[in-house]
Design brief:
Blueprint lengths: L4 E4 L2 E5 L4 E6 L10 E6 L5 E3 L4 E8 L5 E9 L4 E3 L1 E4 L4 E5 L11 E8 L4 E10 L3 E5 L2 E4 L12 E10 L6 H12 L12 E5 L8 E6 L1 H9 L11 E2 L3 E5 H6 L7 H16 L37
Parallel strand pairs: 5-12, 15-16, 15-17, 17-19
Antiparallel strand pairs: 1-2, 2-6, 3-4, 3-6, 6-10, 7-8, 7-11, 9-10, 11-12, 13-14, 14-15, 18-19
Length: 311
């Protein structure tokens, strides 16, 4: 909640985000260069922030109440990161953001103000990390920064990157979000059975799998390097890149109910090859297709499926 009132003994305190100011680097969908701006977040909005910047929170209270402490954290599904808070005045506090912001499901900036009587009021602002990419060669850019490791701690760790052809940079955020939700799924994804741990990294040199969204022509070229013919329609694993053909990414293959279902399949199938899995076949008509079946070529009577372990 932002700008919400909370009753406490002797009165109430209001912690407001109307004057929540951030210095942040402003990219488009993704950028190699950034400028510094000031953003005002009003109630009900989320903030786009970049690591290493400063943030100023204004705390407003009734005259008879006194704020004695302000604390702040960045919280995600997987971790909690405490922020350093400096008092600028009786109503303003500066927060220092870490260079690498935690990411994950429903990331929140939480600010808690404690008044003299001991009552605490909390402000929550959902934040979005600003994407920054750098060239990884051959007209491709990689999203920098590392994500938390997903999967059982005893499983084999495989690192992957998220990359886009430069002409498709406007799709960087949707690719990153889909890769995180697909490869980070511990219920139905590749980490569900405890065989693998996965981590997105920002350096292609430390990654075993490079997930790249490419045009049909670049897909043909990358896949052709290992003798695979994709005919401008299909995706592939070429031993280094899990190449996702943007034509299928955008339009989905026949038999898939939604674009999202097909994108789960595209990522899981090609990354599955990178994890060492080979093609499989439909077991019988009406069955759920194995994720390693070449479903974009033919469902063979099976039902489309995007997950390694759907049940």
């Amino acid at each position: 909640m932002i700008g919400r009132k909370s009753w406490v003994p002797g009165g109430f305190i209001l912690l407001t985000a109307v004057m929540l100011l951030l210095s942040w680097m402003t990219p488009a969908a993704a950028t190699d260069e950034a400028s510094t701006q000031v953003l005002t977040v009003t109630p009900g909005e989320s903030a786009q922030i970049t690591g290493g910047q400063s943030l100023v929170v204004t705390v407003a209270a009734l005259p008879d109440l006194q704020i004695v402490d302000v604390s702040a954290t960045l919280e995600t599904r997987w971790q909690v990161h405490a922020l350093t808070v400096s008092k600028l005045s009786e109503t303003q506090y500066q927060l220092t953001l870490p260079r690498e912001l935690p990411v994950g499901g429903y990331p929140l900036l939480k600010v808690a103000a404690t008044e003299a009587a001991g009552s605490v009021f909390q402000l929550e602002v959902m934040y979005r990390t600003a994407l920054v990419t750098k060239s990884s060669g051959a007209g491709i850019s990689v999203v920098i920064g590392d994500d938390p490791v997903v999967g059982h701690r005893r499983a084999r760790l495989v690192r992957y990157t998220v990359e886009v052809q430069n002409s498709l940079k406007s799709r960087t955020q949707e690719l990153l979000s889909m890769a995180r939700s697909t490869l980070g799924d511990t219920d139905f994804g590749w980490t569900a059975r405890g065989d693998h741990r996965l981590q997105r990294v920002g350096s292609p040199t430390t990654a075993q799998i490079r997930v790249v969204l490419a045009t049909a022509s670049l897909t043909n070229r990358l896949c052709g390097q290992v003798g695979l013919r994709t005919a401008g329609r299909y995706s592939c694993w070429n031993g280094q890149f899990a190449v996702l053909n943007v034509r299928r990414w955008r339009d989905r293959a026949p038999g898939f109910r939604t674009v999202t279902q097909h994108r789960h399949y595209q990522i899981n199938h090609e990354v599955g090859h990178g994890l060492g899995y080979q093609h499989r076949w439909c077991s019988h008509r009406g069955a759920r297709a194995p994720v390693m079946q070449q479903q974009t070529i033919s469902l063979q009577g099976c039902r489309a499926n995007g997950w390694p372990y759907p049940s």
